[in-house]
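CORE FACILITY INTAKE
Project code: CF-77B
Contact: R.S. (postdoc)
Sample description: multi-component assembly, three entities in total
Requested service: structural model of the whole complex
Turnaround: standard
Below are the sequence entries exactly as provided by the requester. Do not edit them.
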Amino acid sequence: MSKTISLNDKNKDFFHSVYEVVRLIPKGRVTSYGAIAKYLGSARSSRMVGWAMNNAHDLNDVPAHRVVNRNGLLTGKMHFSTPLTMENLLKEEGVVVLNDQIVNFAQVYWDPNRELL
DNA sequence: CCGTTGACGCCAT
DNA sequence: TATGGCGCCAACG
């Protein structure tokens, strides 16, 4: 039995789609929760994208550190092994982070609605 | 079963 | 510009 997750088939699909999009984010680039939600057709379900990332922690092939909020703020840093993991991973990819804020956000921003199609 | 919370974001004031 | 309210919806107590 075992159902660590009690999601409906419909939502499983949503979560899975989120993982796919996140996997497509190029190294050194980032996107936002809202952009992913919109790309999946649920523009107002950005919170669910965040929840999906939480589940995604089990999968090692989902670069959750490349997803930030619409201001380029690292709001999800607390959910990583250490509060600095997210920031360090981004810096390793060339993303400039200062005070939990991506400085060159406009340059590294990757919008699935625009880049992907 | 019901009320709160939360990796968000848009809109009204 | 800053603050507050609401939509969204799964998980939790």
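Facility notes:
- The radius of gyration of chain A is 14 Å.
- Residues 5-7, 11, 37, 42, 44-48, 51 of chain A lie near DNA strand C (CB under 10 Å from a C1').
Invoice: internal transfer
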